[in-house]
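Fill in residues.
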């Protein structure tokens, strides 16, 4: 957890074909993203925007956003928090923990990368998280979330590594908790009732990308 800002250019990545997973050895599968470019565009209107990333630290992502936006990035690895609660037998305490988790002042964050975090939370924890993210997000700020649409059980987390604004590498890594129940669109919208849906895309890899905006 920390603050990373105005980092230098990211290392160049090999060119990938968007929309289909690669099969080359030692390479992470690469998929298209339709919402990332719109998320970036929503932040370019702000000078030195503040970005909140809820996943693990990915150095190349930090470099990408530093290069593209010149932004300040707070990385708060909530996936690691989930694992600590699971291994400590304290899952019932997770909602209360998330309610106090974020030190950011109300209405001070321009963009939030939620990734697919909501898919790994129970209903009460998801509600507390959504409330806190809505609180810290600045009016007209943007939140990008991924939501699974398939019922298949997933027993790992995924690091989303930015290749460019149109493609993401998906790198699975071990988790202490599997994906929970798949949310319907109306449930997602109800969860983030303080935000409005700006764009929604259903991808071929069974992910729905939703870009939320906080009303000005």
């Amino acid at each position: 957890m920390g603050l990373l800002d105005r980092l230098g250019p990211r290392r160049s990545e090999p060119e990938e074909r968007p929309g289909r997973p690669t099969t080359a050895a030692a390479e992470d599968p690469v998929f298209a993203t339709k919402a990332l470019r719109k998320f970036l565009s929503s932040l370019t209107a702000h000078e030195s925007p503040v970005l909140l990333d809820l996943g693990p630290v990915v150095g190349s992502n930090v470099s990408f956003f530093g290069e593209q936006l010149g932004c300040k990035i707070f990385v708060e690895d909530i996936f690691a928090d989930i694992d600590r609660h699971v291994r400590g037998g304290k899952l019932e305490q997770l909602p209360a923990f998330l309610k106090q988790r974020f030190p950011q002042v109300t209405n001070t964050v321009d963009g939030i990368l939620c990734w697919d975090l909501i898919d790994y939370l129970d209903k009460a924890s998801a509600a507390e998280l959504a409330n806190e993210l809505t609180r810290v997000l600045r009016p007209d700020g943007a939140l990008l979330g991924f939501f699974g649409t398939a019922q298949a059980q997933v027993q790992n987390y995924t690091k989303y590594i930015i290749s460019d604004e149109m493609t993401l590498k998906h790198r699975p890594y071990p988790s202490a908790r599997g994906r929970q129940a798949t949310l319907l669109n109306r449930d997602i919208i109800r969860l983030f009732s303080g935000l409005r849906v700006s764009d929604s895309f259903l991808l071929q890899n069974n992910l729905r990308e939703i870009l939320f905006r906080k009303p000005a």
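Residues 1-25 have pLDDT under 50 and may be disordered.
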